[in-house]
Specification:
Order of helices and strands: HEHEHHEHEHHHHHHHEHEHE
Low-confidence stretches: none
CATH topology of the largest domain: Rossmann fold
CATH superfamily of the largest domain: Vaccinia Virus protein VP39
Distance between the termini: 40 Å
Helix content: 40-55%
Length: 312
């Protein structure tokens, strides 16, 4: 698929270790890179691939035709995978892959409003439905805007930016990515690392518009329920908040979460047996050659667990 470079493709497939006659789920079809590689690695496997973006589903029609009847596309959120798969008679999986965050297609298409690199409508909706980024920016109270910018964008100047947004929108609502980016840049100091001053604010709004962190939590819990013994969950995250959720979830599932304080009566209760084995004690990172070819891969972190054979 032109315009899309799947990140850490070799590492994802090697960790997933797809095999014939097994059933897999690609939670974020995107450009189809992982899906193609999984189907090639296990020529007899069945793959379900989900995406909440209708454009991604439409792009996948050719791949479905080439791999019929092994590839099945599902339009929807991976947090709802239990319902979507049950409707298709699937109650167990041998592997799940999640490539979190925004896709290259969404970033590169100015009319989707995900990026400030090219001016476009202030949208950011993956499903093209529901409140847009413009709706949030133009209607939310100042405190709520500041909370989103600080909590989801880790923006130190969240209150200053929110105050400026509310003052400006009284005169003229925000409609384009360029308009909002210019205001944000005017309220934050220049970053010595060269990161654009609008980056954190745009990241925060995108996460809020699409409830991405909530979706990650729901998706991880659902994947854990669906995995059969020996099944593997592979997650590639680009954002520190998403990676933190995946890291904590996998550590807990593998019985490696920190114990309770000795002063806590709960510490005396027996701990549940681990349901998973941690495959990545430390997150895998992309190699230098890949980051040179695809700078977007630089922040990627891969984590994985395997369902234990005797897990209940």
């Amino acid at each position: 698929m032109s315009g899309h470079l799947p990140v850490m493709l070799h590492e994802v497939v090697a960790t997933l270790a797809p095999r014939g006659d097994a059933t897999y789920l690609d939670c974020t079809f995107g450009g189809g890179g992982y899906a193609q590689a999984i189907l090639d690695a296990a020529p007899r496997c069945t793959l379900f691939a989900m995406d909440r973006d209708p454009d991604a589903i439409a792009r996948g029609a050719g791949l479905v035709a080439r791999h019929a009847p092994r590839l099945h596309l599902i339009e929807g959120r991976f947090g709802d995978m239990l319902e979507h798969l049950a409707a298709r008679g699937v109650t167990a999986l041998d592997g799940v892959v999640m490539d979190l965050g925004v896709s290259s297609f969404q970033i590169d298409e100015a009319h989707r409003g995900f990026s400030f690199r090219a001016d476009g409508p202030l949208d950011m909706r993956m499903e093209k439905d529901g409140p847009s980024a413009a709706d949030l920016v133009n209607t939310l109270p100042e405190d709520e805007l500041a909370d989103i910018l600080f909590r989801l964008g880790e923006e130190r100047y969240a209150r200053r930016i929110a105050r400026a947004i509310v003052a400006r929108r009284k005169e003229q609502p925000f409609a384009t990515t360029g308009d909002l980016a210019a205001l944000v840049r005017s309220k934050v100091p220049r970053d010595p690392s060269g990161i654009d001053g609008a980056t954190r604010a745009f990241q925060a709004l995108r996460l809020a518009v699409n409830d991405e962190l909530g979706e990650v939590e729901r998706g991880l819990a659902s994947a854990a329920r669906l995995l059969a013994p020996g099944g593997r969950l592979v997650v590639v995250a680009f954002h520190s908040l998403e990676d933190r959720i995946a890291k904590r979830f996998m550590a807990d599932a593998a019985g490696r979460a920190g114990g309770a304080s000795r002063h806590d009566p709960g510490a005396l209760a027996p701990r549940a047996a681990p349901r998973f084995r941690l495959l990545t004690p430390r997150a895998l990172r992309p190699g230098e050659a890949e980051t040179r070819t695809n700078p977007r891969a630089r922040s990627a972190r891969l984590r994985a667990v395997e369902r234990l054979e005797d897990a209940a």
